[in-house]
Amino acid sequence: MRKELKPKSKFLSLVLRHKPAAAGVTLDENGWCQVHDLLRGAESAGVSISLPELEEIVATNEKKRFSLCGDGIKIRANQGHSIELELGLTEKEPPEELFHGTTIRFDEPIMENGLMKMKRHHVHLSSDIETAKSVGMRHGKVLILRVDSESMGKDGYKFYLSENGVWLVDHVPIKYLKKMNLR
Fold first, then answer.
1. Signal peptide: which range, if any (predicted)?
2. How many domains does the chain have?
3. 168: which strand partners?
């Protein structure tokens, strides 16, 4: 993504994941809002985003945070919401292992309580170590956790795969976690 679009992308994340009122928009029960309402609301909030810029942000966002509907008149964030929505996720059998990247400052609470969704709808997991590592690096010294997702699935935990390839689950108990050595 072009450097000048990053602040606009961050604003879109704020609006579509956490605070629709920041752009004066309303999300439907599945998290969608009208593109023209979003662009008008962003402009009113002092963030000018053209339609071509919005389309470029959706297409080039490394984490594929956003989706446009088939006809391009609605947009939503794919996951990571702190507001109550029904994202219409379909349960999917997870691979044998998944990974979670965080920072070492959360080591102790995680080893006491497991991975919790906190203010989000789900715990976010990656299918590869490199993605988990890049997520963890945003917050300080990296802690990578291996998740025994195969055993979790066998034990009845439900997994979902978002449109952008992020695995989602409600909680990961400690017994399914193993710290990884990143040497």
1. none
2. 2
3. 124, 160
What whole-number distance in Å separates Cα of residue 93 and Cα of residue 114? 21
Closest CA to 114 of 157, 174, 170: 174
**In this predicted structure, what is the pLDDT of residue 140?**
78
Could you give the CA distance from residue 100 to residue 159 in angstroms, rounded to a whole number? 14
Question: By residue range, what is the domain housing residue 72?
Answer: 3-77
Distance CA 72, CA 89 (A): 20
Residues in the chain: 183
For residue 152, the model assigns a pLDDT of 97
CATH code for the domain in which residue 21 is found:
1.10.10.970
Q: Record the tokens describing residue 46, joined without a space.
A: 């002092």
Q: What is residue 68's three-state secondary structure? A: strand
Q: Are residues 164 and 104 in the same domain?
A: yes
pLDDT tens digits, residue range 102-137?
A: 988 888 999 999 998 877 778 989 999 988 888 888
Q: Report DSSP letters for 117-155, one per residue.
A: -TTSSSEEEBSSHHHHHHHHHTTSSEEEEEE-HHHHHHT
SS3 114: coil
**Which position has the token pair 């879109």?**
12
Residue 183 has pLDDT above 60, yes or no: no
108 and 142 fall within a common domain: yes
Give yes or no: residues 102 and 163 share one domain.
Answer: yes
